Amino acid sequence: MSNAPEKDLAGLEQQLAAPDLQNTNAKIQGSTSVLKSKKTETKKNEKAPKQQKSVEDNSKQQGKFVELPGAEMGKVVVRFPPEASGYLHIGHAKAALLNQHYQLAFNGRLIMRFDDTNPAKEKEDFEKVILEDVEMLKIKPDIFTYTSDHFDKMLDICENGMLKEGLAYVDDTDGDKIRLEREQRIDSINRNNSIEKNLELWKQMVLGTEIGIKCCVRAKIDMQSANGCLRDPTIYRCKPESHPRTGDKYKVYPCYDLACPIIDSLEGVTHCLRTTEYTDRDAQYYWFCDALKLGTRSNETRPYVWSYSRLNMTNTVLSKRKLTWFVEQGHVDGWDDPRMPTVRGVFRRGMQVEALKQFIVAQGSSRTVTAMQWDKIWSLNRSIVDSIAPRHTALLLSNSNKENVVLSYPPVEVVVENVEKPYKIDNVPKHPKNSQLGLKNCVWAAPTILINYSDAELLEVGRRATFINWGNLLITRIERNQNNNKIERIHAVSDLENTDFKSTVKVTWLPKTDYSESEEVLPILVPVVCVYFDHLISKAVLAKDDDFKQYLNTENSRWELQMIGDSELKDLKKGDVIQLQRRGYFICDSTYQPYNIHTGKETPLVLFNIPDGHTKSETSITTSNFKDKKSKKKESIAVATTKTSDSANTKKVTKLGLEVLKISENLGEWYSQVLVKGEMIEYYDVSGCYVLRPWAYRIWELIQEWFDARIKRKPLNIRNCYFPMFVSQGALEREKEHIADFAPEVAWVTKSGETDLAEPIAIRPTSETGMYPAFAKWIQSYRDLPLKLNQWNSVVRWEFKHPQPFLRTREFLWQEGHNAYATREEAERDVLITLGYYEYVYKNMLAVPVIKGKKTEKEKFAGGIFTTTCEAYVASSGRAIQGATSHYLGTNFAKMFDVHFEHPDTHEKSFVHQISFGMTTRTIGVMVMVHGDDRGLVLPPRVASIQVIIVPCGVGVSTANEVKDNLTRTCLDVCNRLKGDSLIETDDENDNSVIQHRNSSLMIRADTDLRDNYSPGWKFNHWELKGVPLRLEIGPKDLDRNQMVAVRRDNGDKLTIPLEGRPNDGGNDKMVVRITELLNQIQQDMYNKAEQEMKENVVICRKWSECAAQLAAKHLLLIPFCGRPICEDNIKRDTTLDDGTADVGASTMGAKSLCVPFEQPKGADILKSNDQCIHPECGQPAGSFTLFGRSY
User: What residue spans carry the Basic and acidic residues bias annotation (predicted)?
Assistant: First the structure.
């Protein structure tokens, strides 16, 4: 993320002006350009030089990473070349992460290349899957390529560089015989073919004839070599299958052994990392390099092969063929089954990316091949999830039929005799050591509570037990069944004043809900299914000759426990990680759904157990009084009393935070609270008008600064101006069609004091009618064109619908541009260029993805020819919102206002072609809706007024003054370094990106919170509510360790950053560089998250019967549509649910057209010639896929 966005916009204007309206986002296309810059050649010596010092030297536990031979900082290029024939497993993850490690360690480049040399295995679906897996691993390749990008080059090399040079020959020997001859070191009968015969057979292969199919090309190396890989390996084979990318263009395909060295050299790879199982092929790799003189020509390199150990895991197979067998045979639910060692499988089971990275780092680049135990990786994972997992409670109802699970009895009732009615227990933290997770909302004590039967067995009459998050209860009586002696009920009295918890039994519990009496008081308990998993393979390490099918454990590898959980579990989302107290860690796989009138039942919450790295079976925690000794010592137990003393704490308590969750039914209330408590707006005493506070207005300023600077430069060269806000009635009357859409919203001034005006004056709803009379005066000749003007102003539209700040207001700020041209081509070009600028604002500044397209005839700008738009999507409401528009007005307005010029050739009167384009403060509202969460605003770094807030913490009354002073000085010093205040001041600032450059130094918008009347916790919540992207926490202990803790607002991740000193040589400050990189990552991660939400919710719908259900699922629909306004009205009418709801913003509103996307579905989803408009009453041919949905 650079200071100036110009780099990202290189060539944007030319691309946007292309007739096919192509998207400017970087995509993986059929032929991806490879690295063009000249790479430094590595040493040609095949022997590795002496191993050098480790690349990294940090305090984390990690293996030794040996520095790559011949590596130079900034010049290392590595590659990750998966075959698109399956899902990535953790072995691939090691390869990818190891390459990424050296990419980052040497500030180099990482190429991701799809090895698509085998058309029989290559599938486009797997390409998409692999790209998603790489994204899940948070790996960011610098470039994407395909082996097939170089097929023509390799054909030329094979024919002219090898066959004609006698380095290869064509062999029509049977495949089995070839294998036998290679084993026996016998030359093929074709080894000494003439060049002419080889070329003749090669031609047959290229054509794919019957003769050619029987042939292959073999490299002529050494049939007597002790290394079998050098015994004339096959380098080309004839395959008649169609290739997913190249179709039937080729009939011959290179083998991996030939393709690798050639493409590595062509793409500038300096170091080829691969596992030790390929060691025998290294000599072959270098033979091709030498024989083909790779690296001796410009833009080529001679790669160095570096081996590392393959990842082997106990009780696991990593062969794609074997994993495919598990899927095809139905032993698992799919490639993402939690028992599968795929990237998706382990992530679905609760593996965190950071744990996987730490696991790979711990191994380093070792060449020792060992079978690693899963306990190691899950133990690392536990240390990560422990700090982020909110604590919840669940009680066991029944076991599954798993053999080694002891049968459990239902929960036991505990009657608390001195508790007369239910009451809520306040101030119970969701996590005992992480206050940032907040407090629980629904912890209720009740006269009757439920506990696990296993816990009931531990209770004794006359002894106290600690009921977690409540306090001590004294057991007074235990009732048992006379026949089987099983406990049926327990009686107790609360003894909350007793705080001796050291020698008591710890019990998890839930209030008993009596639906007949307490439904309105007590929240319901949530049915939960806890799913546990074991290995698919029963044998730890399979021998080479072992048949894995003989060691299947599929029948006993999955079992379920039926449980009942606390009411807050109903709010879990898929992927949320939690801890069930005294049971372990779990990840939400399927959310709870309340009682459904159609099915007659509720859908339980499904939780997958996350292994914690203990070798013992997870079942043990379901049959015994599980206690985590380590956490027992560290985690305090929240205790509540029945009464709260107002005088217990004299410190002022300020109500902070949101009272409504974003995911709740009242999204509008959440939005209002976020804006007010986040200090974005203040309500005004005129309905529909709002005060923009500095925190919000700065966002608009940053957008304005970038956009204003951009449009003033080539190719637009627009100038700013200002027209009055008042428009005469006569001007409005001149364009009745245009103003018709705004007529109900036009505000009029009718009085001056107590005197009626002679004629009402309108307050502009838009400026065409006010500006174009002036255009008619200024434009007389073609020499006056083009005329390009822009103004930043406010407009008034007296909305009658329910107003919402930023989204629908009666007065709003905007930018509006109005240009006039001599030709239509010029006008249409600039329409697309300005639309591209709007896309850039949303994507690169606000981190919001948009869909670019053309408005339908019904929805276009009144009086114009066509309207282009950027449409955003708000996942929480399932509704779209128009982000910005750019219109081609044609000559319509010019004719109405007589804006003409004398044509230079015909000398006749010609009307100008006009465009208009606009963007409003609605951009801010869209950003808030897309990124905000239940803790408040989440601001992208590029538009945050404060990007980094520094908070001193860990200071108490007993802290020495000198320590406090030192801490304050450090905080101020860090802030000054981030802001660059110590440098020479200049008025030339550009705050539109995360960093600014001043005197070659990095600049960040930072501030410190040194207020002493608020606690650090209050400050944390305050700045989180305001959405500051990054918080730096510095305490006395941090000073001792020379570090600070960075906390990301977008995902809550915590990182430790060294407090390095200022550079003495005038170079970049390493600390500032690290913070800058982190802000860049936050910006990108926020966009990626929003983009994924949009992709998941834009669906193709070809059947009318499915539209209502898709809309109810909060989807936007790409539907075949004829484009007729009457049909559009019918679609909106027939997708509206008539339930008496007055608010059209409710989930009952019908679908309206949003745009015809420039990027239409491709491949199997392409619009077919016989496709008809989706509405059943239409019957007209569909002109395109059109985006429909509910909207703001």
Answer: 1-10, 38-59
**Cα–Cα distance between 537 and 312 in angstroms, integer?**
13
Query: Which residue has 């001193």 as its token pair?
Result: 952
Q: Which residue has the tokens 């008809």?
A: 1172
Contact of 870 with 1155, CB cutoff 8 Å: no
Peptide bond into 765 cis (omega under 30): no
- The 10s digit of each residue's pLDDT in 665-691 is 578 888 888 999 999 999 888 878 889
How far CA 1096 is from CA of 805, 1092, 1093, 1100, 1113, in Å, comes to: 28, 6, 5, 11, 11
Bond prior to 390 in cis (omega within 30° of 0) = no
The span from the CA of 33 to the CA of 28, in Å, is: 10
CA 708 to chain centre: 30
Rounded Cα–Cα distance for residues 80 and 275 (Å): 12
In sequence order, the 6+-apart residues with CB closer than 8 A to the CB of 241 are: 119, 120
Q: Which residue blocks in 610-746 are alpha helix, DSSP H?
A: 620-623, 629-634, 667-677, 694-711, 729-733, 736-740
Distances (CA, A) of 460 to 936, 1033, 1085: 47, 47, 53
Q: Where are the beta strands (DSSP E) in 723-878?
A: 726-728, 747-752, 755-763, 787-796, 811-821, 851-854, 866-874
- Copy the structure tokens of residue 103: 């990419």
Please state the φ and ψ torsions of residue 270, each to the nearest 5 degrees. -95, -30
What's at 531, amino acid-wise? V
Beta bridge partners of 792: 815
What is the H or E stretch that residue 21 is in? none
- 116 and 243 Cβ atoms separated by less than 8 Å: yes
The residue type found at 99 is N
- Residues 584 and 610 sit within 8 Å (Cβ to Cβ): yes
DSSP-based three-state secondary structure for 951: strand
Residue 670: closest CA among 928, 879, 920, 926: 928
Residue 100 CA from chain centroid, whole number:
19
Query: What does the alpha-carbon distance between residue 745 and residue 799 come to, in Å, rounded to a whole number?
Result: 6
**Interatomic CA distance for residues 717 and 309, integer angstroms:** 58
Cβ burial 40-63 (10 Å sphere, 16+ → b, else e): eebeeeeeeeeeeebbeeeeeebe
**Paired sense of beta strands 811-821 and 913-920, if any:** antiparallel
What is the per-residue pLDDT for 927? 96
Query: What pLDDT, in 10s, does the model give residues 190-203?
Result: 999 999 999 999 99
Token pair of 1016, please?
């650090």
- Residue 525 in contact with residue 515, Cβ under 8 Å? no
> Cβ of 947: how many Cβ atoms within 10 Å?
27
pTM: 0.50
Going from the C-alpha of 1019 to that of each of 257, 467, 934, 951, 975, the distances in angstroms are: 59, 32, 17, 8, 17
> Using an 8 Å Cβ cutoff, are 782 and 822 in contact?
yes
CA triple 1110-1113-1114, angle to 5 deg: 100
Which of 646, 636, 643, 640 lies closest to 425 in space, CA to CA?
A: 640
CA distances 393 to 442, 662, 667, 1083, Å, are 12, 24, 28, 36
The whole-angstrom separation of Cα 93 and Cα 116 is: 19
With a cut of 50, list the residues of the chain below it in pLDDT: 1-64, 401, 403-406, 515-520, 616-655, 738-739, 982-1001, 1138-1146
> 1015 Cβ partners below 8 Å, 6+ apart?
none
Contact of 1063 with 1057, CB cutoff 8 Å: no
Half-sphere exposure of 101 (CA within 13 A, CB side): 27
Degrees (nearest 5) of the Cα angle 900, 903, 906? 135
Cα–Cα distance measured from residue 1186 to residue 1164, given in angstroms and rounded to the nearest whole number: 17
Cα separation of 1101 and 1116, whole Å? 9
869 - beta bridge partners? 853, 885
Place of tokens 């282009």: 868
Evaluate whether 678 touches 796 at the Cβ level (below 8 Å). no
Query: What tokens were used for 165?
Result: 């040079």
State the pLDDT at residue 406: 46
199-217 burial by CB neighbour count: b if 16+ within 10 A, else e?
eebbebbbebeeebbbbbb
